[in-house]
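Morning F.,

Quick status update on the modeling queue. The single chain you submitted on Monday has been processed. Sequence for confirmation:
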Amino acid sequence: MSALLSSFTEEVGQLPDHRLYGRVSGVLGMTVEVAGLDRQLSIGARCQVEARGGRRVTCEVVGFRGGKALLLPFGSLDGVGLGCKAELAASEPAIWPTEAWLGRVVNALGQPVDGKGPLPLGPVAYRIRRDPPPAHGRRRVGGKIDLGVRAINTFLSCCEGQRMGIFAGSGVGKSVLLSQLARYTTVDVNVIGLIGERGREVQEWLEDDLGKEGLARSVVVVATSDEPPLMRRQAAQLTLALAESFRDRGRDVLCLMDSVTRFAMAMREIGLSAGEPPAAKGYTPSVFAELPRLLERAGPGTEGQGSITGLFTVLVEGDDHNEPIADAVRGILDGHIVLERQIAERGRYPAINILRSVSRTLPGCNSDGENALVQRARRLLAIYDDMAELIRIGAYRQGSDASVDEALRYNAALEGFLKQGKHERADLEGGYADLAAILGVAWPPEAVAAAEPPAARAAR
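C-alpha cells below.
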C-alpha cells in the first residue's frame, strides 16, 4: 500500500500547473528545431509536436544549437512544418508492469502489439531510464544456472546474475540459440528485447522458435529495423526496466537482448543528428558512454531482491570480432560466447567456438573434478585445432605424437557432444556425465573417491 501511495504521489507531483509551448523553427532530415522552450528543456526531455491534421508526434531533446532545441521523433514527421506547436511533456516516461504482462508482446513505448487487448497497470511506476544498483550494495553472483544448452552449461558455466555476450556474424544461429535459452533456462521469468529486428521475422521467431511454452513465461519487447532510432534505443532501455521490475519482486530473471549492436547503431544515429563528431567507425562518443549504463543494469540485485542474468547478442560486422562495439561490450560483460561461421558451415549447431569463448565465473563456480574434466576436454580440442590443417591435407601421420593421436581419437565424439538440436534440451549435471563417459573418466568423482579403499585414497 505504501509503494502504491508513493508511486501515486510521485506521479501527481509531476503534473504541471500550466502548459508550456514552443514552435517548430526548422526540420532537417529527422531533426526538429524548436524555439521558445530552450530555457525550459534539457537533454532527455520530451515534447509533443502537433502536426498538420491534429496528429501529435512525441519527440525527445537530444541537443541544443543557436538557442534552439534539437529534437528527434519517436514516429513519422509527416505533417510537421514551420510554426507547428511543440508542447512540453509533463512527466518522465515510465511503465507500470505486473505479472499479467507475462506472455505479452509490447513495443518500445510499453504498448501491446500482440492483439490481446490492453495491458493491466501495476501499482508501482518504473522509469525507463534508471541507474544500476550501487556497486557496494549488490550481492555477489549466485550458483550455477542451467541454460539448457550442453556446450554452454559444461564449458562456459554461467551463474545467476552473470552477464554474457553472444558474438556472431549474421546468419550463424544467434536467434535459434536465443530461443533455446529462453525455452530451457531454469529461471522464473524471461524478458526478451528484439532490437532492430526484421519485421518479417518477428512473428516467425515468436511462433516457431520461442513457441507457446517459452512465451508463456516471457515478456517480449519489439522494435523493428524500420522504426526511428529513438524507438530502438528505448526498446533496449524498456527491456532492462521490465527485468528490473521482476527482479525487485524477488524473481530470478533471464534478460535476452538481440542485439546490442543495433542499440549502438541507434545511438550513433542519434549522436550524429545532434552534431556529435564521429569517432571509431562512425560511432560517436556517447555510444561508448551509454553501453555500460545499459549493460550494468543487469546483474545481481541488492539484499532481498532477485537477479538479472543477462545474455546479450553482438552482431559483429564482417565477422570482425575486434570491431569497436564488440571490443567495448567484451570489456563490460562477464564473459563471451563466440559463434563462428566456419563451424556453422560444417553443420554443427550451436556453432560455438569453445576455445575462443570465456566465462569469467570459471573455474570458481565448478568443483575440482568438474574443472579437471573440462580442462582435459579443452586441451584435446586445442591440440586438434592446432593440427587441423595438417590432418585435413593428410600431412600428419598417426603415431608421430601421442597427444595428437589422443586428440584425433576423441575429436568426433567431442564434436558430437557440442552439437545440439533446436528442440533438444540438455541438463546441467547430465552434461558432465556425458563428457566424462566420452573421455573414459569415472563419474561423479565424489562417488568414485568414496568407493575407494582407505589405503588407495591415502596413496592417491
